[in-house]
């Protein structure tokens, strides 16, 4: 599987999806010298195929019985569809808030009562994953697991553990930077930050 992971990293780099050295404000409010723009993988046929394959493998590693794969809006919506396609199951997505028109749903595309796996591109603190879990549970779904492509090791695994949600990640940020370094990327501006991560 290392080859698939190497391909994923190469595709991310070629798509300009790894930024190191700037100042990036994250969803959690933290400012980081590193930014993973996994959305760029959507523009790469090979990158999105390999990411979907690795995510699907992570879903299988959960060992859960599930009916559907559900992406977290917005970055995770496409992954939900692509992974569900690999696994041959239903797909949908979770909104951050319900619309105030139409059906006013938080979870779209999937029948209530389904056993779902939540998928996202990046997890940092796990806040977005936890919000999606809570929204889905409050809407009548059974969340049987969560998977992400990149885990930035700032608490997502611990948060999923506390919430009792089985969780898998394709790659940690530490692995990503190590592969990137081997491919010639200067990661020195990220090193202090990575030293303090929980992975
Ligand atoms: O683990 P957390 O600390 O919650 O951070 C991770 C979240 O941040 C990103 O989404 P963002 O809020 O940038 O929105 P987007 O998906 O609409 O791009 C990412 O796609 C995750 O959903
Ligand atoms: O935590 C975030 O908001 C975040 C980090 C990151 O590297 N990439 C991303 O899309 N979001």
Automatic annotation (TrEMBL):
Entry keyword Magnesium: yes
This protein's name: Orotate phosphoribosyltransferase
Any single GO BP term: 'de novo' UMP biosynthetic process
PANTHER family named among the record's database cross-references: OROTATE PHOSPHORIBOSYLTRANSFERASE, URIDINE 5'-MONOPHOSPHATE SYNTHASE
GO molecular function: magnesium ion binding; orotate phosphoribosyltransferase activity
Annotated binding of 5-phospho-alpha-D-ribose 1-diphosphate, by residue: 95, 99, 101, 120-128
Subunit-structure text: Homodimer.
Cited Pfam families: Pribosyltran (PF00156)
Organism annotation: Pyrolobus fumarii (strain DSM 11204 / 1A)
NCBIfam families given in the database record: pyrE
């Amino acid at each position: 599987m290392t080859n698939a992971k190497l391909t994923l990293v190469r595709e991310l780099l070629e798509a300009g999806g790894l930024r190191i050295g700037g100042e990036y404000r994250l969803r959690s409010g933290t400012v980081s010298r590193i930014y993973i723009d996994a959305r760029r993988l959507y523009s790469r046929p090979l990158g999105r195929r390999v990411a979907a394959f690795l995510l699907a493998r992570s879903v299988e590693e959960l060992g859960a019985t599930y009916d559907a794969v559900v992406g977290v809006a917005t970055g995770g919506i496409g992954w939900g569809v692509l992974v569900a396609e690999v696994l041959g199951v239903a797909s949908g997505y979770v909104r951050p808030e319900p619309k105030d028109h139409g059906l006013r749903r938080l979870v779209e595309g999937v029948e209530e009562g389904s056993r779902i796996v939540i998928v996202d591109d990046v997890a940092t603190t796990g806040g977005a994953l936890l919000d999606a879990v809570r929204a889905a549970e409050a809407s009548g779904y059974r969340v049987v697991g969560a998977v992400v492509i990149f885990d930035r090791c700032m608490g997502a695994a611990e948060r999923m553990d506390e919430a009792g949600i089985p969780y898998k990640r394709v790659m940690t940020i530490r692995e990503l930077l190590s592969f990137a370094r081997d491919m010639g990327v200067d990661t020195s501006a990220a090193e202090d930050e990575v030293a303090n991560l929980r992975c």
